[in-house]
């Protein structure tokens, strides 16, 4: 678990890439994050996280899909790698495990 | 195209982003930002979208997005290495030009450094005091009747009263010349000249670090003395001497209560010993209208300003002055002021003292802001001339570099790279010149110090602020001198350059011509200045000053002889070769002065007052000095009534206006309190003689008959050296306990004008330097022109041109420029020298022939420089020049 530490923001970015599937590029990811979390996200932070995740090997990218409203510039489209999928699954499993270990009294108790 | 659909944020922001952002991110991130921008345009105005776009760009300024350093596309370091190599090869290839360039710049920079140090020293006076910003000197500006006086001194009580009555004054201190005394060392007596009375508060006001002793009490007991480190070393061979005694004038003894560090040379007074002011009886005299003898300094409280304090001290002055005026002249202050008279106090900040115009009663002669300006201007002129040389030679030689430039451009060098190449080259040249200049400066320093009377050292150049400005100066001069050649050379078209030689078009040579004209105009200006200063100084030295100063021996220490004065006088006069002798301290060539007020009526009305020098002399004075009586007679020892006799000078006579002044009565207040008044009778009028700077007109003066033992002046008729040593023998036989100290009157006179003479010599040297540098440049240009036209000259010779014809051909183009420079310089020089001369009450006129000489000199020097090359080119055998291709 130690070597594959994933920050919260990084995890959210990975999830957004997964959700967007075929059209996961910078601005779209920003939009998705903002929509999902309700927080405002800076383009630079999204790109920073994407670069780091790519360096770590969780994402791969290709260029493509230029449009007129981008001044004819191409997008960098991101896609999860196997490692990326694995790290997301691990993270989810970790949480599930931990959730399971919470004594039921904690949440039930708070209800009453 | 569909231009309007393309988002269009500020271009510079786009450019900036592409410049700093790495390639991996650039395209995609920029695309994202543009898309966002496009989206924003729909919901907000353009301006706001632009701001947000710029904001986005700035957000990317983080390490992850920034381009990594090593960009393989441009090899900057390698190119700079290449520039160095090429620069070195160019230097080595044309040694003569490089020498002219570097030597010219080095000499110019050296002059700049020397002047810079001089100016810095002048401007640094009294800046170092801890309280410099809060210390002010009190000046008194007075007007009585027709007498207008600006004094640097105040009455005895001014300082203390100001401290008591004006809340903003924290402390005061007073200084007054004590004069000198003899200090015993073993059996010898040594004269110490720079002694002052000082208040015990001296060290509160000025920063004079004490090595041993207590600054608070050092000057509070009578018979104590504070000495400087070097005086302590002189008498005790050590500095820890507090508590020891010095024997003064053979009899008194003074206890050393403090040893201070030597006063820095940039301080407006240079005393070496201080004795307590409480010993000075006059220091307690409660006089406000009378004697003003004390240099008074006020230390203001933190936050108090001069504007605030000046009116307060004037009110204080009025309060105390009023009653005294009433007592002495029987008029109230209002009546006094209503007659147009005034009595005002003003304050000069301590750091400004040295360069403020000198007033009456300054402790030491002050500097001159005028010379600071003149020298700064000269430094700038010289460095400009040197820079112009560099530009001229570099552009003139551009043909030699044109192929290199063409080649570089073909190989892909951009204009920017070429500009940086040539600027690098000129900065390199300049650095070399600066290193040489620092060397020359260090060598020239003792010589320069002798000229200026300063004690500057080359190590001052190592001072961080100066060292930094040297580096900046090098870069600046390098950039300026490199800029024109750099832009000029880098703009060559490779095609035309590589096809054939670039025409050294008339536009280019036009620019060079303007520069040469400027150089020679500056040189002529400096030559005229030099000649004028020189002639004015000659005029002063040879002007009939109204007395004879040649072969006059002045013997000091007469005041310590007591009852032996007459014996010495008779003894000295017996020596063969010695002529007349007179005993008095009042001489036209020293600073021994006494000002007094005389009235033409016994009622002592201010309207009838005349402020004059009052010199006490004996009956031999006029004859010994060679002064001429215009009217009346000399004092006579046989007439008892002559103790109340006066001899006036012509200025005083003119001031009094009346025709028949002989036997006229004048009155003088001897004591303000008892109202004791002396009556004098005019017995003679002496021709005006100069007794202060020749910058000022002769002021009114009166001789009274009496004895004053300040000095003895002896006229020497025989051989000077022999007579003086005979007189010394005589002195030693009569007064073995006192040293024989003497000076010559003509030397003392020259000393008075040392400032002017020093500046005169300095200007002469710097003017010669500037001409030398200009000529170096001209020489380079002429050499180059002759080289360029070598084939033309060869062909002309083959076709039958004569040597003289070719010489004239080559010289005239340069001569035209020099003549133009001369024409431009003359009116400016006329204006400047005239202004300078107006400062002197006695001065030469601005005469046309000085300009003629200066112009002729400039033309001649230029001609010789150019002709040398022209003739060399003209006599060359055409075979050698035409043989190749």
Descriptive overview:
- The complex is a heterodimer of chains A (112) and B (885).
- Helices cover 60% and strands 11% of the residues of chain A.
- The model of chain A has no long low-confidence stretch (mean pLDDT 86).
- With 112 residues, chain A is mainly alpha-helical.
- Chain A has helices spanning 8-20, 26-37, 43-56, 82-101, 104-111; strands spanning 59-64, 75-80.
- The longest helix of chain A is centred in the C-terminal third of the chain and has 20 residues, at 82-101.
- In chain B, 51% of the residues lie in helices and 17% in strands.
- Chain B is built from 26 helices and 22 strands.
- In chain B, helix 1 (11-20) runs parallel beside helix 3, helix 4 (76-93) crosses helix 5 (95-123) and helix 16 packs across helix 25 (848-874).
- Chain B starts with 10 loop residues before the first helix and ends with a helix.
- The A-B interface holds A 25-27, 30, 42-45, 47-48, 51-52, 63, 66-76 and B 2, 5-7, 24-25, 27-36, 38-39, 56, 59-60, 62, 64-65.
Tell me the overall shape of chain B: globular
Instruction: Please report the number of helical segments of chain B.
Output: 26
How many individual β-strands of chain B? Answer: 22
Using the CA coordinates, give the radius of gyration of chain A.
17 Å
Straight-line distance between termini of chain B = 59 Å
Briefly, what is this?
The complex is a heterodimer of chains A (112) and B (885). With 112 residues, chain A is mainly α.
Keywords:
heterodimer, A: 112 residues, mainly alpha, two-stranded antiparallel sheet, 5 helices, 60% helix, elongated, B: 885 residues, alpha+beta, eleven-stranded mixed beta sheet, six-stranded mixed barrel, 51% helix, disordered N terminus
Topology:
The complex is a heterodimer of chains A (112) and B (885).
Chain A (H helix, E strand, L loop, with lengths): L7 H13 L5 H12 L5 H14 L2 E6 L10 E6 L1 H20 L2 H8 L1
Antiparallel strand pairs in A: 1-2
Chain B lengths: L10 H10 L2 H21 L2 H14 L16 H18 L1 H29 L11 E10 L2 E5 L6 H8 L3 E17 L2 E11 L3 H4 L4 E4 L10 E5 H8 L8 E4 L3 E9 L12 E4 L18 E6 L5 H24 L3 H6 L3 E8 L19 H28 L1 H13 L4 H38 L11 H27 L3 H6 L6 H37 L9 E4 L9 H10 L3 E6 L11 E5 L9 E9 L3 H5 L3 E4 L12 E5 H7 L8 E7 L4 E11 L14 E5 L6 E5 L3 H15 L7 E3 H8 L1 H35 L1 H9 L4 H35 L10 H27 L3 H5 L3
């Amino acid at each position: 678990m130690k070597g594959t530490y994933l920050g919260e923001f990084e995890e959210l970015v990975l999830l957004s890439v997964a959700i967007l599937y075929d059209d996961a590029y910078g601005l779209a990811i920003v939009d998705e994050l903002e929509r999902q979390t309700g927080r405002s996200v800076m383009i630079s932070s999204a790109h920073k996280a994407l670069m780091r995740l790519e360096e770590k090997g969780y994402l791969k990218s290709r260029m493509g899909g230029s449009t007129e409203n981008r001044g004819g510039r191409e997008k960098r489209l991101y896609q999860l790698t196997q490692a990326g999928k694995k790290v997301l699954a691990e993270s989810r499993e970790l949480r599930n495990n931990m959730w399971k270990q919470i004594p039921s009294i904690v949440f039930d108790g708070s209800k009453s | 195209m569909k231009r309007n659909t393309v988002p269009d944020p500020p271009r510079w922001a786009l450019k900036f982003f592409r410049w700093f952002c790495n390639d991996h991110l650039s395209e995609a991130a920029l695309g994202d930002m543009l898309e966002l921008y496009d989206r924003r345009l729909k919901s907000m105005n353009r301006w706001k979208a632009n701001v947000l776009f710029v904001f986005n760009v700035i957000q990317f300024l983080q390490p992850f997005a920034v381009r990594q350093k090593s960009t393989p596309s441009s090899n900057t370091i390698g190119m700079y290495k290449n520039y160095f190599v090429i620069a070195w090869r160019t230097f080595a290839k044309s040694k003569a030009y490089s020498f002219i360039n570097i030597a010219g710049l080095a000499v110019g920079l050296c002059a700049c450094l020397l002047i810079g140090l001089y100016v810095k020293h002048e401007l640094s006076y009294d800046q170092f005091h801890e309280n410099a910003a809060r210390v002010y000197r009190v000046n008194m500006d007075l007007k009585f009747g027709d007498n207008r006086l600006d004094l640097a001194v105040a009455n005895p009580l001014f300082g203390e009263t100001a401290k008591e009555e004006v809340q903003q004054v924290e402390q005061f201190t007073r200084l007054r010349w004590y004069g000198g005394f003899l200090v015993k060392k073993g059996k010898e007596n040594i004269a110490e000249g720079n002694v002052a009375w000082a208040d015990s508060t001296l060290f509160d006001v000025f920063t004079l670090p004490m090595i041993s002793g207590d600054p608070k009490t050092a000057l509070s007991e009578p018979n104590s003395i504070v000495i400087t480190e070097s005086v302590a070393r002189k008498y005790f061979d050590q500095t820890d001497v507090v508590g020891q005694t010095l024997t003064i004038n053979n009899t008194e003894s003074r206890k050393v209560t403090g040893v201070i560090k030597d006063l820095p040379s940039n301080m407006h007074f240079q005393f070496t010993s201080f004795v307590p002011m409480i010993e000075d009886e006059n220091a307690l005299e409660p006089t406000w209208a009378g004697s003003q003898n004390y240099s008074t300094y006020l230390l203001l409280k933190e936050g108090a300003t001069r504007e605030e304090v000046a009116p307060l001290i004037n009110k204080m002055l009025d309060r105390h002055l009023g009653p005294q005026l009433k007592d002495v002249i029987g008029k109230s202050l209002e009546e006094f002021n209503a007659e147009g008279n005034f009595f005002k106090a003003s304050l000069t900040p301590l750091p400004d003292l040295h360069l403020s115009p000198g007033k009456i009663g300054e402790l030491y002669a002050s500097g001159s802001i005028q010379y600071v300006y003149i020298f700064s201007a000269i430094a700038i002129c010289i460095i400009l001339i040197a820079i112009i040389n560099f530009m001229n030679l570099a552009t003139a030689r551009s043909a030699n570099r044109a192929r290199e430039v063409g080649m570089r451009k073909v190989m892909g060098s951009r204009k920017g790279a070429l500009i940086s190449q040539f600027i690098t080259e000129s900065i390199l040249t300049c650095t070399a010149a600066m290193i040489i200049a620092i060397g020359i400066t260090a060598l020239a320093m003792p010589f320069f110090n002798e000229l200026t009377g300063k004690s500057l050292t080359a190590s001052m150049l190592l001072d961080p602020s100066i060292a930094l400005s040297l580096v900046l100066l090098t870069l600046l001069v390098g950039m300026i001198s490199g800029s024109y050649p750099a832009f000029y050379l880098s703009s060559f078209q490779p095609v035309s350059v590589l096809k054939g030689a670039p025409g050294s078009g008339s536009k280019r040579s036009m620019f060079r011509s303007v520069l040469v004209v400027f150089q020679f105009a500056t040189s002529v200006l400096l030559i005229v200045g030099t000649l004028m200063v020189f002639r004015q100084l000659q005029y002063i030295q040879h002007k009939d000053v109204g007395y004879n100063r040649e072969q006059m021996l002045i013997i000091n220490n007469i005041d310590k002889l007591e009852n032996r004065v007459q014996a010495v006088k008779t003894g000295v006069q017996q020596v063969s070769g010695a002529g007349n002798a007179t005993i008095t301290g009042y001489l036209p060539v020293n600073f021994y002065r006494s000002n007094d007020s005389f009235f033409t009526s016994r009622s002592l009305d201010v309207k009838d007052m005349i402020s004059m020098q009052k010199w006490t002399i004996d009956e031999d004075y006029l004859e010994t000095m060679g002064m001429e009586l215009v009217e009346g007679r000399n004092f006579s020892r046989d007439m008892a009534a002559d103790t109340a006799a006066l001899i006036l000078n012509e200025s005083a006579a003119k001031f009094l206006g009346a025709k028949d002044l002989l036997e006229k009565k004048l009155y003088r207040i001897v004591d303000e309190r008892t109202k004791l008044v002396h009556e004098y009778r005019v017995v003679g009028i002496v021709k005006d003689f100069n007794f202060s700077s020749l910058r000022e007109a002769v002021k009114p003066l009166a001789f009274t008959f009496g004895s004053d033992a300040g000095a003895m002046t002896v006229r020497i008729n025989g051989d000077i050296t022999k007579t003086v040593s005979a007189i010394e023998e005589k002195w030693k036989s009569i007064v073995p306990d006192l040293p024989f100290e003497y000076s010559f009157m003509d030397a003392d006179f020259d000393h008075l004008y040392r400032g002017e003479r020093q500046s005169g010599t300095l200007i002469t040297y710097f003017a010669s330097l500037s001409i030398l540098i200009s000529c170096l440049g001209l020489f380079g240009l002429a050499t180059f022109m002759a080289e360029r036209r070598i084939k033309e000259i060869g062909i002309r010779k083959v076709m039958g041109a004569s040597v003289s014809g070719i010489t004239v051909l080559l010289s005239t183009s340069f001569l035209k420029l020099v003549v133009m420079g001369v024409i431009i310089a003359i009116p400016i020089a006329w204006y400047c020298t005239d202004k300078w001369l107006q400062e002197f009450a006695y001065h030469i006129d601005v005469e046309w022939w000085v300009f003629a000489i200066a112009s002729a000199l400039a033309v001649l020097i230029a001609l010789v420089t150019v002709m040398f090359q022209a003739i060399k080119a003209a006599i060359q055998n055409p075979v050698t020049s035409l043989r190749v291709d």
